[in-house]
Design a protein that fits this description.
globular, homodimer, four-stranded mixed β-sheet, alpha+beta
């Protein structure tokens, strides 16, 4: 068994036995060393975005003092939902190792599969999104584009 | 101009002029009243997950004392990336109003479009994800499933 996945499982177990949320633990590794761990704290923190991967990413960023986790890999007990997959990409994580699948998530009551379908096929979102005040927002974007000395990410 | 979108733009402007991150502000509304606001703080907080929508969701959940924002709507200056779209769905937000499009995001240097493509067509992810230790993680999930008195989300 992979030692980092074992840590991710232990992290998840600690979370569920403490009532923090679902069975999702994550470990972020750089150059063969653990940078940070995290687990699902949706219930504990009243934060629907605090999945295991997101918690670990936030912790790793605090440890390294950056929003850029280039060169880091993540080990996570469940295949990431679209939110967490995209969080890994925004963080520039180089590789994701996961244990259980999106199908396994469904088996224990989570909605990841339907979210993947909706993100992939926007028509399934129906009227969930609507556009408003495009021109006013474009002015905001143009102002941002014109700014100098900004930090890109 | 919609008054909540105007607030979202003001929130975004405050963020960019303070160097917090990109031009993304969000306002969460319930029963016609503002519950919370948020803006992109990726640079400020060294948190690649702290997009405007995520910041607003976290704030609204703290205000309401729940991880469930059923009945809430979000007004946001840019069309949500897959992370934020999925964050809204996990939070049970009922409707998303956005100003600029994913194409506009690309114009000012953001990668949302490529992330949408990769989430929709997993083959584009190549070797980004790899599965490990499935059975050990399934044991964890089975243990969670067997637990009583857990809070579903």
């Amino acid at each position: 068994m992979n030692k980092f996945m074992q840590m991710a499982i232990e992290e998840a177990k600690q979370g569920i036995t403490s009532g923090h949320g679902g069975p999702f633990g994550s470990v972020i590794v750089k150059d063969g060393k653990v940078v940070a761990k995290g687990h699902n704290r949706v219930v504990q923190n009243n934060d629907p975005t605090c999945h295991g991967e997101v918690d670990a990413i936030r912790n790793a960023c605090q440890v390294l003092g950056t929003f850029d986790l280039s060169g880091c890999e993540i080990y996570t007990t469940g295949e990431p939902c679209p939110m967490c997959l995209c969080a890994c990409m925004w963080a520039n994580i180089s590789k994701i190792y996961y244990g259980c699948t999106i199908g396994d998530n469904a088996e224990i009551g989570f909605r990841d599969d339907s979210f993947y379908q909706k993100v992939a096929d926007r028509s399934q979102l129906g009227q969930y999104l609507a556009q408003l005040d495009h021109e006013h927002c474009q002015e905001l974007f143009a102002f941002y584009k014109s700014m100098t000395n900004k930090t890109n990410y």
